[in-house]
Amino acid sequence: MRRILAAVGRAREHPLQAISLTPVVTRTHLELVDSDLVDSLTPVAVDGDGTARTTYELPPDLRRSIERTGSPFTERETRDIHRAFARALSQEISDPEVGLALRHARYGEDWDTMHALWVRHGLGLVTRSAEIATWAFTDLPSEATKKFPFLSLATAIFDRTLAEFDAPDRRATIQTVARRASTAIHALWSNRSGAVTLHLLVGQIIDERINGSLKKAAQLGARVAAEIEKQTERGTLTDHGLLAWCEFQVGMTQLLQGDTSLSRTTTRRAYTAALSGGIDAEYIVVNAASQLAVIHALSGELNDAEAWADRAEQHQCHPWFDPLVRLPARIAREMVSVERLQPSPTTLAAESDSLRGTEMWPFVARTLARRKIYNGNATGALLDLYRWRSNSPNHERFENERLLIGPEVEALVSIGDPHDATRSAEAFFARHQAQPEDTPGASLPYARALHLSGDSRRARRIAAKIARSKSPHPLIDVIEARLLLADIERSARSSATHVPLGHLNEAIDHLGLTRLYATVSEDLLSTLGRGPNGVLDAALRHMEATGRLFPPAVQRPALTPRELVVLRHLAEGHPLSDIARDLGLSVNTIKTQASSLYRKLGASTRRQAVDAAAREGFL
Fold this sequence. Notes:
It comes from Salana multivorans. The chain has helices spanning 2-13, 15-19, 27-33, 60-69, 75-89, 97-107, 111-121, 124-137, 142-147, 151-157, 167-185, 194-210, 214-234, 240-257, 260-275, 282-299, 302-314, 322-339, 348-351, 361-374, 378-390, 397-414, 418-431, 443-452, 456-468, 475-491, 501-511, 514-517, 522-525, 535-546, 561-571, 576-583, 587-601, 606-615; strands at 42-48, 51-57. The protein is mostly helical.
């Protein structure tokens, strides 16, 4: 501090030379060295944080004159003057003061101030001055990152080479380098402020997501929520931008887990906090609005999805963030058009390969595959899905599979292979120890595949559970599950359906969920009335052009309880005589039951009967 005061004294001895160290002169500079200098400067109107103010510049001829005479300061004094300016300017919250504070701090090697600015403003420094932030944090010396390991994350993000990358590649590079920086960052845990604690926890959440561990990311999200509550109670969390960033990343994790209800609540809090976060949170406002558009689209709330996408477009943010933070809104618009069976409003299909590095990629892939399926190209969708999945890194495969298994099952059913569809879904559930009834995006296509392959009993059980649940399944799945239940009842030739079709019809028409009409049987479709919004008519026109989405349900053979017992013995390879002895029946009776089994299963040999029974789900 003594050196800084001495430097201020020297600056006041040569005020013009001190002022020449900054390209833009603010009142803070003048107050530090000599306010009377204002008469020698050229005023410049600036608009910082929406507030019109005046800054100053040295006239060009005066600056050239100072440069010709040389600096009266030693290198050490020059660094200390930069530090004095940095510390005075860093107390401001407006532009251009914050950007200038960062510039002076780097020239003055004032790592304390650079660390304080990074903690306080984070990626908001990009919005204030991407050029200065990139320059200031690039190639920081080891003494800076050793003293403040948290600066290593800034160095990773603001590497000047990132300016050459497109948004998806930039995001992937940031994530990769940030992961390498995480080891150094952990050194902060022994001595950290409340803000740094939240930054670190959120950094770990992103790191776990990158490594494919959503479970760990969710656990860290719970810690973030607890830390926010603790700091709020203490009155120490006053940074709305930081709060918005934390809530947004937790909401993203919840979205990737498939919990749209919880993600909606968390992301809405992020959006609200970001609105109060000023310039540092502008990009979070856009990103949160875009994410809410996706959440509503996944839930089937199409009008709300479009409203949030429109809201994201209305907000502005720095071009450095722009393509990436607006991507979810574009995905949401694509989702809406798929649900309404309308032409694509975006260029996502053409950009799909370049979007592979983003966390939103699985949503892009899911939406593009479903568009092909509903446009009658299920085979093309399958080929895309297999290619995308095989090219996914191991740590991404679960999340890609969770979002893509649904379209894969739908595609297999659409090409007339519901048995393969059920096997694919069951293999996914087994690989990831997931519950068939509680896996959003996969449960309902699996239930439909079961129904269409003839196993209506299991299909009914799964659909009924989805229809009764509010979480984790989104609204659109609940509506579609009730439609499927109605279809199952009609295919069973029930005299009356217990599903309230009138209310379902009104909901589908009101929400504009045209696609749902394309998923039901022709028999059920004929019983549904036309709503005022013409959704049913739109679905009928689409099906006339592309054909029916799914084939009729296979009528599963009805086996008696005794035939099922005999079937299991046959599958185990037991001779008829052993089966008769075990069941206490005559061999002729067993032969009669075996013949009945063969006839019902369309088989002529034991092997054919066992294979058919396995396909039908009896074994």
